[in-house]
Amino acid sequence: MKPIIFIPGIEATNLVDSNTFNFETKWNAYDTLLTSIGTTISGPYIEEKLQLNPLYDQNNNVIVERNHIARLPYEKTIRNIAEKYNSDPIYLFGYDWRLSNAVNGKKLAIFLEYLKNKLHKENLEGFRFVTHSMGALVFSCYLSELNENFGDINKVVLCAPPFRGSPYAIIHLIKGDGGVKSFLNKIFGRDEDIRKVVRTYPSLFELSPWYKNAMLFEDGTTIDLTNINHWQSNIWDDIEPLFQARLKSLDDFKKTKMYDLSKLPEELRSKMIIIAGSKDKTVVGLKVIKKKGEIKSFIRLDDLVIGSGDGTVPFDSSTIYKDHIRTIEVQKEDIFSELGDNIDFHGMFLRDSRVQNIIVRMFDDNVQTTLERDKNSNQILGWKNKDWWESLGSSVKSLSKF
Fold first, then answer.
1. Where would I find the H helices in 58-175?
2. What InterPro entries has UniProt attached to this entry (predicted)?
3. Residue 320 lies in a domain
4. pLDDT band for position 359 (50/70/90)?
5. N or C: which end of the chain has fewer CB within 10 A?
6. Residue range 377-383: average pLDDT?
7. DSSP strand pairing (90-92 vs 13-17)
8. Is residue 315 a part of any domain in this protein?
């Protein structure tokens, strides 16, 4: 038995107040197109700040816990995998995405121990993992909990991973959610409150960009996001002790909590693949003015650096391990190819048929057997000795040289 563990991205788990009779919804994950539009326009929009110790909400009457996982971006893929591997159970690991990925990595380790005992250890051949977006950071932190004992891991597919963050995390901290909801929040006077709420969430800091040239001062020097003086001053000036604590945790997260996947044993790296989206217009860099009026380290949101990525995660962030772990690029196709999914390439990444094919093929005990299934098309196209992912078309290619 090789159970499959699915770890979703940020905001993809419904959050509820368990200290109510009906488990009142605090954050509504996207379940259908209609509920997605409704949530985007009118909320609910979570308003619970976290304490200095980010395990706890500031409101003593509220206990926020995870509930169900968003159906719209994931259910199609999970059902397809379940049909393919119907003898192996699939487990959904939803989590409170406001908290540090290190906290949720610990919870994932506990969850896996629970499953090992539930399923009887002697029947297990290892777990297979699928992650989306920030779920890859949760998985990375889970690896740090294993004390180099990786025997429970069978195979791993990391989809659209923000290994080195995304400028959108910074944008979110500065201006809130954006879009129609942000406009309505301004009308009803909630926009500033919402921004102050998300500034208490460790996950947003851990998603801040730190790949090369992600954020630069106008003189070309690099921003250090563990240095409070390199942050826009009006973000933190009214919550400086809390902000300093978040930056200290961010530094620790980068250095000790998030596992450097390039340091994994070669045997395990050979059982992993990364799927990175590209060719979608993505903010890849932010320009920072050292002082504008009373504001220090002012970030110019009117002059964003645009490049390639999946629309949310820059290509340079998702592909940093391409020399160590097989990294497969999936290019965004014409918007009319898969209309509903391509509108939000990152958010609907797992709905893409090419991504689903890669996951299913990777989980095959011998991925080269997929060439037999594709034998007719290989002959028609004149292919010889193609690797297992190449029959998916020219929009899918390996970025790794091995």
1. 75-84, 101-118, 135-144, 167-175
2. AB_hydrolase_fold (IPR029058), LACT/PDAT_acylTrfase (IPR003386)
3. yes
4. very high
5. C
6. 53
7. unpaired
8. yes
Cα–Cα distance list, 137 to 44, 111, 151, 196, 379 (Å)? 26, 16, 20, 24, 41
Sole residue written with tokens 């009214």: 238
Q: What is the chain's mean pLDDT, rounded?
A: 88
Q: Two tokens at 13? A: 């788990």
Asked if the structure places residue 49 within a domain, the reply is: yes
Query: Could you tell me which of 76, 65, 73 has the C-alpha nearest to residue 35?
Result: 73
Structure tokens at 307: 């490049």
Domain harbouring 136, CATH code: 3.40.50.1820
Phi, psi values for residue 323, rounded to 5°: -85, -5
Please report which helix (H) or strand (E) contains residue 13, including its range. strand 13-17
DSSP-derived pairing of the beta strands 127-132 and 90-92: unpaired
Model confidence pTM above 0.85: yes
64-69: strand order across its sheet: 24-27, 13-17, 64-69
How far is residue 74 from each of residues 113, 213, 290, 353, measured CA to CA in Å?
25, 32, 42, 12
Residue-wise over 167-197: b if at least 16 C-beta within 10 A, else e? bbbbbbbbebbeeebbebbeeeebbeebbbb
Total structural domains within the chain: 1
Task: Quote the domain boundaries for residue 83.
Answer: 4-164+237-277+308-398
Pair 358, 329: CB distance under 8 Å:
no
